[in-house]
Amino acid sequence: MIIDHRANLDTIWEVLQMAREDCISEDGGGSHDEQWQDVCLAMAQVSEELGIDEVAEEQAMMAAEEEADKGDYLYEQQRDRLMMEQWENEQANE
Questions:
Q1: DSSP letter at 28?
Q2: What distance in Å separates the CA atoms of residue 23 and residue 36, rounded to the nearest whole number?
Q3: DSSP state, residue 30
Q4: Residue 19: is its pLDDT beyond 80?
Q5: 9 CB-contact burial (10 Å; exposed 0-12 / middle 13-18 / buried 19+)
Q6: From CA 14, how far away is CA 65, in angstroms rounded?
Q7: Is the model's pLDDT at 57 over the cut of 70?
Q8: Are residues 43 and 59 in the same domain?
Q9: Which of the residues 10, 25, 51, 52 could staple to 47 if both were Cys, CB 3.0 to 4.6 A apart?
Q10: Which of 65, 56, 48 is nearest to 9 (CA)?
């Protein structure tokens, strides 16, 4: 049986996020925030022990999102240019 540690950690994080919202909400640097920092540190240590580099994964995901955004931007530029050319051609033919 292959264990998907990444998926398991994601499941744990989902529940921890719910606990953060419902039980240990932000309190401007008070005890709840300290408790949340302890939770995050513990999760980072577990991830490291499992050989999962969450920072690297997050950076890779952000880079992929930036590339997708660039692609969207380039697509929109090309679409706008083609629409302008089509409009200019229609104007020239009138």
A1: S
A2: 10
A3: S
A4: yes
A5: middle
A6: 21
A7: no
A8: no
A9: 52
A10: 48
DSSP string of 5-19?
HHHHHHHHHHHHHHH
- Section 26-45 average pLDDT: 86
Angstrom CA distances, 17 to 10, 14, 61, stand at: 10, 5, 20
| Residue 82 identity | L
- Based on the domain organization, do 48 and 65 belong to the same domain? no
Distance CA 77, CA 86 (A): 14
Quick one: 46 and 60 in the same domain? no
pLDDT of 15 reads 92
> How many other C-beta atoms lie within 10 A of the C-beta of residue 79?
10
Do both 2 and 48 map to the same domain? yes
Using CA of residue 86, residue 87, residue 88, residue 89, what is the dihedral sign? positive
Query: Containing domain of residue 62, as a range?
Result: 54-94
pLDDT for the residue 56: 61
